[in-house]
Amino acid sequence: MPYHEFEVSKCIPERKMHAVVKGPGEDLTHALPKGYLNTIPGTISERGCAYCGAKHVIGTPMKDVIHLSHGPVGCTYDTWQTKRYISDNNNFQLKYTFASDVKEKHIVFGAEKLLKQNILEAFDAFPDIKRMTIYQTCATALIGDDIAAIAEEVMTERPEVDIFVCNSPGFGGPSQSGGHHKINIAWLNQKVGTVEPEITSDYVINYVGEYNIQGDQEVMLDYFKRMGIQVLSTFTGNGTYDALRGMHRAHLNVLECARSAEYICDELRARYGIPRLDIDGFGHKALGDSLRKIGLFFGIEDRAEAIIAEETARWKPELDWYRERLQGKRVCLWPGGSKLWHWAHAIQEEMGVKVVSVYTKFGHQGDMEKGVSRCGEGALAIDDPNELEGQEALLTLKPDVIFTGKRPGEVAKKMRVPYLNAHAYHNGPYKGFEGWVRFARDIYNAVYSPMHQLSAIDISKDDYATDKGFVTRRMLSDANLSDEAKASPITGYTGPFDPIPGLRGKSYPAFERRVATEAAE
């Protein structure tokens, strides 16, 4: 059995079942960690909660909506503006966040009156916005606030507004994936079918599980437009509230992120008979195959092939340039959800890197199955790792670069491992033929960054003391300071030294005056 036990987690033996090393000749029956289970107490998980999955991942990208969290302000702040879900209405949903700001007294006496007051204030503050989503949090779910009743009351008083209620308290699932499911089904139950959209093409799709991270969606919409396809709605990147109410009239649901949005696709198929087609916008081969599948469904394969040929001719040579220079570089692929398997095979095949580890914080067994199957022998697969396990893995695996979120990424940087933001990107978009080259460029820049190479140099035994006044001492030359200033404790100057090359003989009167003044005081 290839289970991997972390030294830092030996005190929690259950964790051993959540990490595996893929051994020679092993298939998924031998090399699959347990996943999507309740967090083991004491492991200090870095998972997001169900509320986070509903609001932060899926709800917030809707652009013409007031996103109001009914709960303590901390819940709202933690899910505000940490991903680059851009929109073409001046990024309204990124600029503003709304909370009912529930406090202790509201927990005791109820917060329904507070919620109604907040709803009305929000609509009054932004009179051009007529749509709202209200998210339930742990605190208000536990005290039993009926937010649906309050929403109905407001819509009766103000017929021009429409409100969607998402009952998504943080404890609603083992991880944020539980929130994905809740908002998917709630939207379908409450809003889909309440607006009749205008159909302008013979080929009509919903683009589902796409959140327009740094413009990803716009890249894909351009391909669809060139194929003559009408995108009825996008769930939910740069999407409008009313367009998403008309999802029931599409001919096909094109699904990108299966982990966050397969639920609504499956229900649309069951209730309205709309087929589901899974695609992948990452990687030249995967994207080409995806466009072909869509073309085949509608009988317009020739249009897809024309796009693939044009884009490949333009961008494949640049991708090959990076592949040659990234060959054999070691990568930890720790993105969280479906990018675990969207990227694993593609970056190895098309960029030449070696994936030495994959992990997921909220993925299901299906995500791990696809991710592990696309890795080579010796890869370490981890479910729901904590910070100490992540550090131990980095020390053991010694990767050249890590793809992960901001929090573990900042830890990796302190360990002198460059990271790329797998959730919000560094210099995206990463989808599309050009986007994949942009991703390769970011990997190349991370691996060969002079700053990261300098960070590995030990300066603890440097000729110059690093405890105080380092920059000032090197900027001030012996020739430009008075004896009094040289001896000042402000500068920490202890005797003649060679300043930074190029500064010798230059005068810095402002520094000299400041040092002399501070010494006199």
UniProtKB/TrEMBL annotation:
Q: Which Pfam families match?
A: Oxidored_nitro
Q: Which reaction does it catalyse?
A: N2 + 8 reduced [2Fe-2S]-[ferredoxin] + 16 ATP + 16 H2O = H2 + 8 oxidized [2Fe-2S]-[ferredoxin] + 2 NH4(+) + 16 ADP + 16 phosphate + 6 H(+)
Which GO molecular function terms does the record list? ATP binding; iron-sulfur cluster binding; metal ion binding; nitrogenase activity
PROSITE patterns cross-referenced by the UniProt entry = NITROGENASE_1_1, NITROGENASE_1_2
**EC code:** 1.18.6.1
Nitrogenase/oxidoreductase component domain residues are 49-447
Q: Which InterPro entries does the UniProt record give?
A: Nase/OxRdtase_comp1, Nase_asu, Nase_comp1_asu, Nase_comp1_CS, Nase_Fe-Fe_asu
The cofactors required by this protein are: [8Fe-7S] cluster
Which controlled-vocabulary keywords does the entry list? ATP-binding, Iron, Iron-sulfur, Metal-binding, Nitrogen fixation, Nucleotide-binding, Oxidoreductase
> NCBIfam families under this entry?
alt_nitrog_alph, ANFD, N2-ase-Ialpha
Q: Which family does it belong to?
A: Belongs to the NifD/NifK/NifE/NifN family.
Q: How does this chain assemble?
A: Hexamer of two alpha, two beta, and two delta chains.
User: What is the name attached to this protein's record?
Assistant: Nitrogenase protein alpha chain
